[in-house]
Amino acid sequence: MNTNFTSHSSDEDARMRTPNPLSAIPQVIVLGIAAMACLSSGCTRWIANPAMAGGSLLGVNTPALTTTTDANGVQLVAAPAESANTVHQASQSERYVARQYPSTAPYVPPTTYVPPTNGVPATTNAPPSNYTTPPSLATPPSTYGNSAYGVSPAPSAPVNAPAIQYGAAPQYGAAPQYGATPQYGAAPPYTAPPQNVPPTTTYSPGQNYGTPIAPDATYAAPDPIFPGTTYSDPLSPPTNYVPMPTVREADLIINGYPARTGRIMLGGAVNSDAGVTGQITLDERNFDITRWPRSFQDMFSGTAFRGAGQTFRIEAAPGSDFDRYTINFADPNLFGYKPVSMSVSGFLVDRRFQDWDEERLGGRLSFGYRITPDLSVSAGISGQNVEISRPRVLGVAPLDAVLGDNELYSGTLSLKHDTRNSPIQSSEGHYFEFSFEQAFGDFDYSRFESEYRKYWLLSQRADGSGRQTLSYSTQIGYSGEETPIFENFFAGGYATIRGFDFRGAGPVDSGVSVGGRFKFLNTVEYMFPITADDAFKGVAFVDFGTVEPEAKLNSDSFRVSPGLGLRVAIPMLGPAPLAFDFAFPVNKADTDETQVFSFYMSLIR
């Protein structure tokens, strides 16, 4: 695309900045009359470019261009001689043509110059401008001085432009030095060319750019170079030229407002394992423990204890089967923007099991390091007092040994890798966690646990809804010989093996579920949509595994329980769906307690 623009001299700019309205009135009147006369006669080019007409405009003498003929009979344009008045008038009417360099990748600038082969002598000190493979054009490329562009002349090209031999530079007397202002001689009269439409010129591969096949081929040239114009050969760009898009810089003013980071939540939950539970939560995700209030206004305006991106959470969850009260403070970036986190928490949990009551009071301190966005490691230490009371059956050795208060301390190391696309009803990715714990205090033992979940997206609609997902999960754990009964592994219920009562699939001693030190639990589940809005989804699953006193698998006590379920998403109840599952144990131990139907509301099963 050719872009024409006009450059004004400093004198003209000064006049434009300080115009004299009175002195401009006669010129405006004369200019208007001249413009109307020329528009009526179709001489619009004369108004835009008076130098081409060979006359004068508004009493200004403008020298005209003339044509000459070389030894081969080629018609050339000659420029008038340069004088003080001519240079001044040239500075008033300079026109520059901006054209795009060839930018077809890979672009290799020319390094050699091949003189034209049409018999016209080359200009002295001409810059290198050779292309071995010219572009394919419907019309011949325009010639600007001694340079050719692969772009057609601009639409504003004169209708009656002088015919110039393609590939030959206009002769201005002596050849000018490269980059210097050409000097001009006398101004001969201008003669219009006999031909207005350029003939079609073709190229052959390997032919020098700017050399037509037909020696006498002519074309309509662009605007002639006015006297006083200083230009260089734009066909030969710097050797480090790389075509790049235009880059513009702008100042941006961004007004940001903090989003709602604090909330108070009231809710509840119900499931077949823990009964009915209420919940009240105070959560602040932009907490600042160092921003103490400086005045009463800070206390009530919401500026105190805010602004550092920390998390502060207080939760109270009283229920029919257990009560839980927790307070937690976490800093996701402990040392500025370093990927180091810290968490401090305290808890009080009172749980009423079928065989005993258990109350835990303690705290935990942990540090984490995020290796990648998906991979993290953590280390922590915890201490708690565990009180066991109200046993249902006396005389069970593991239970009798822990009645009363028990001091339990432990250190934990864990590794997590999480690539799931969502923690709620995931459809792609996996979750892996491995942890090692060393306990001390009243009990001294080691424990390791590993959990792996994998999700496959089988199909979905074009808009991303209606996902059909296949998932597999497994849990493996082993604990040392001195593990107390309240720290054993248990199975049965919606979180482990469906189709069994809560803690009803495991070792039993005198009718008391004592759990085991080894667990191996697995689930294969297929989820599919039922309704178009994904409010109702169905699941088909198989839960299988076992909990044993020792690290071994026993076919007599290996549990297998297939089933079907329904998931109901109710937006007003939060992101966690309601789950209703029917499971039918097909293999179990003689002491197991079954429960066909289970229901719950939880983020993950």
TrEMBL record:
Where is composition skewed (Polar residues) in this entry? 122-131
The main place the protein resides is membrane
Q: Where is this region: Disordered?
A: 117-139
**Top-level taxon:** Bacteria
Q: Where in the cell is it found?
A: Membrane
Q: Name one GO cellular component term.
A: outer membrane
Q: Which residues form a coiled coil?
A: none
| UniProt keyword terms in alphabetical order | Cell outer membrane, Membrane, Signal, Transmembrane
Residue stretches making up the Bacterial surface antigen (D15) domain = 305-602
**What InterPro entries does UniProt report for this protein, alphabetically?**
Bac_surfAg_D15, D15-like
| Protein name per UniProt | Translocation and assembly module TamA
